[in-house]
Structure formats: C-alpha cells, structure tokens
Design a protein that fits this description.
Layout (H helix, E strand, L loop, with lengths): L4 E6 L9 H8 L5 H9 L3 E3 L2 E2 L12 E6 L16 E4 L3 E6 L16 H8 L23 E7 L2 H12 L4 E9 L6 E5 L2 E4 L2 E7 L8 E10 L2 E8 L6 H8 L22 H13 L5 E9 L6 E5 L4 H13 L8
Parallel strand pairs: 7-14
Antiparallel strand pairs: 1-4, 2-3, 2-4, 5-6, 6-7, 8-13, 8-14, 9-12, 10-11, 12-13, 14-15
Length: 332
C-alpha cells in the first residue's frame, strides 16, 4: 500500500528568507529536520514546480513548496468546540477577533486549544495551503497579541489574500502601550528584522542578514511613564512591532520576551514606579492589539474594513493610567 503523502505550502511574508529545510520543519513538525534534508537531496521537494537539492536554499514570499513524503507518524488536528468572536463570515473567508492568550496554530507545547482547533470545529472547509497544522491561516498574531485576522476557506482565496499582504495592500493597524516617550509624535521605523544571533528563539534587528521591515507609529496620548500609540504595519515580519519598539528603547508594556516587564526604577520617579507596578499586575502579556484590518474581498471585490475594541485587560490598564494621570487628557 502506498502511504506517501503530498504537502503543499505557500511561503508567506513572515517565512520568506528562511532556509528550505527550516521552513519545512516548521510546517511539518512530525518530521525531523534530517529526514526533510534527505527528502530535499532526493529531489522530493519542488519549489515553484522545480526540484531544489540544497537544504540551504532560501525560500521567498509567494513561492509554492511541494513535498511528497511518507511521514512516520501522521499528525492530526482534531476540532475543539472553543468559542470564537467571528466578526465576518461568508462562503469564502471569515474574520476573527482573537482573544489574548490564544495560540494561532498547533506547535510543540501547544497541541490543543489553538485557533486552528476552534476553526476546525466552526468550519467544514478551510484552505489547505497552510498544511495540516495551519489550515486557512493567512497571517498570524502572537499568542499574547489580541485582535483581528482573516482566515481563508479555499486555496484560491488564500493565495489572493497572501498576494495582497505581499503587495502591502492589506491595512493592519495596531494599538500599544509602550514604556517612555517616543522620540517623535509620528515616524516610521525602518530596521531589518531576523533571528537573533544570540538566541534563535527570539527575533532582533539584524543589519546584515535581517529582512526589510517598516512600522509607522503615531502617538495618541501620554500616560507617564507610558505612551499610548497607534501603529501601521507595512511588512509582517515575526514579532516585528515588538522588536522595533524594544530596539528603540520603548518596549511594549508587559512584553515578557523583549523587555516590557522590567521596572526601570533608575529612570522613574517613585510615583511612576508605583503606576508601572500596578499596570504590570493588570496585564500578563504585551499590551498590543490588532484593532483594524482592511482588505479587498478576493471574490466580490468589495473593500472590507473591520475594527475591534480593546480587550478587557488592555482597557483596564488604560483606565488605571487615566486615573493616575489626572489632567493628562484621555486616549481615544
């Protein structure tokens, strides 16, 4: 009996620039990297229809990767009846407001309770381009980041939305609370982002080998010792906003990875230390929310725009800061 399986993936903007074997290892976690490298050498991996024999080949946004392989242990993702905040749905796609703390797709350590598990219980049809672990997932949000994302129900819709992302035609607006005061009322941070040389599990500004990344910010209000800012994402690198803000010395409040949970006592007044301590107790994640999403519907051609208000934990921090900063004006 022939048990060989066929895998097909479209490289999105987050994964472009990765080695081919690294990319496939992330897509098919049940296969070891050495087994994937063996398949590449054997010519079982096609990039845009042509075999690529080098594991170090760098994949690019929009490329289609195909692999025919016999996995030793098929990995299945079973539906789980987890409530979803669906903001829009038709036969082609849906827009979901992800709650903070929910992982988007299964990964080691997160085999259950993800958005994908919930989507499989909600929908009978999802795009297969993302593979068994990421059905329908066009773009992602970090576990601690809340807000809007779009999910595709067919491969054609998935490809169209991915192209819009690559062409920067998808409008993604975020809200964040950051430490300190930004250097200007508005500016664009253009710094390349890549894997941190010192910690491969983290991202960093990497001048030599990073990929172009651009984030525009606008200061909405100041709540000492924080600022409330609005951000427009031009590119979608992994952890881009968090890395850009941390690198400029203004990490997102509560960010456990990029310095957002550290009390900077030496640079704060006693009152500011008290405020910061209270804020950190109210939010156990990064204060980052994907509040607006706009794109062109791949089938109808309609321009769709969705908004999502701040979740309860983020809003509670804003209310605290308003109270502690009386007379400083209110955030909108």
């Amino acid at each position: 009996m022939n048990d060989r399986r066929y895998f097909r993936y479209l490289v999105d903007e987050e994964d472009g620039g990765e080695r081919l074997d690294v990319f496939l290892s992330a897509q098919i976690p049940e296969l070891s990297r050495s087994r994937i490298q063996k398949a590449i050498r054997a010519g079982d991996v096609l990039v845009d229809g042509s075999p690529v024999a080098k594991s170090a080949h760098k994949v690019h946004e929009g490329e289609q990767i195909e692999l025919t392989f016999s996995p030793p242990r098929p990995l299945e993702v079973t539906p789980e009846a987890i409530p979803l905040d669906v903001r829009f749905e038709d036969e082609h796609l849906l827009v979901v407001n992800k709650e903070p703390g929910m992982v988007v797709h299964p990964a080691p350590g997160h085999e259950h309770g993800t958005l994908v598990h919930a989507l499989l219980a909600h929908c009978t049809n999802l795009s297969g381009i993302g593979g068994v672990m990421r059905p329908g997932i066009v773009h992602r949000l970090d576990r601690g980041t809340s807000g809007l994302l779009v999910v595709a129900k067919s491969d054609e819709v998935h490809i169209s939305l991915s192209r819009q992302l690559m062409d920067r035609r998808v409008r993604r607006i975020y809200l964040a609370l950051v430490w300190g005061e930004m250097p200007a009322t508005t500016d664009t941070i253009e710094l390349p982002v890549g894997r941190s040389p010192g910690n491969r599990k983290k991202m960093a500004v990497v001048v030599d080998k990073g990929r172009d990344a651009a984030t525009t910010y606008y200061v909405l209000d100041t709540f000492s010792p924080f600022q409330y800012i609005r951000l427009k994402l031009w590119t979608g690198r992994t952890h881009q906003i968090r890395v850009h803000l941390s690198h400029t010395g203004h990490p997102v409040l509560g960010d456990p990875v990029y310095g957002g949970r550290k009390l900077r006592k030496g640079s704060l007044s006693k009152h500011e230390v008290e405020i910061a301590g209270k804020a950190l107790k109210l939010i156990e994640r990064q204060a980052l929310h994907a509040g607006e999403l706009s794109f062109v519907h791949p089938v109808t051609g309609d321009e769709l725009t969705f908004t999502a208000s701040l979740p309860a934990d983020f809003e509670s921090v804003i209310e605290l800061l308003r109270t502690e900063n009386r007379g400083a004006g209110s955030a909108t």
